[in-house]
Amino acid sequence: MPKQYAVIGLGRFGSAIAQALYSANNEVLGIDINEDRIDEHQDIVSHAIIADSTEELSMRNIGIRNFDTVIVSIGDNMQASILTVVILHELGVKHIVAKALNKHHGIVLSKVGATEVVYPDRDMALRIAHKLMTPNIIDY
Ligand code: ATP
């Protein structure tokens, strides 16, 4: 059965995740504060809307708590990423995956309610290193 995902922040990482989930026949709502990003994503996710995820009322009105998983992919603005996770947690979102820029950011995200923290640069570096050492492994 398709799952319902919301991706907040459609930068390179958020966009790639949103497209991969949508390609696998899931429902994907893309959310970004930047209108250009939303225009770019109209045809590559189920729905794309302009909203500021640090505004609790906006997130409540979207019905964010009904999504199976919400991915927070706001990188550069740590304050916005942390506040977004706080709001999602308070609104009762069960599975919150948040992108961290560094270890300290990740620790804070976990403390305020992220169920999973990802470090895209580090994770990709480790994956490539692993692949280089085991060239015959099947990647997907
Ligand atoms: P990446 O490293 O994934 O390429 P980026 O450098 O493009 O990311 P970031 O600053 O990390 O951009 O932010 C990712 C996205 O999050 C941007 O498209 C930005 O408009 C969006 N964003 C930032 N703050 C908010 C917010 N409060 N609500 C919704 N979207 C936001």
From TrEMBL:
Molecular functions (GO terms): monoatomic cation transmembrane transporter activity
Residue range from the parent sequence: 1 to 140 of 218
Superkingdom assignment: Bacteria
GO BP of this protein: potassium ion transport
Lineage: Bacteria, Bacillati, Bacillota, Bacilli, Bacillales
Biological source species: Heyndrickxia oleronia
Name of the protein this chain belongs to: Potassium uptake system protein
RCK N-terminal domain boundaries: 2-119
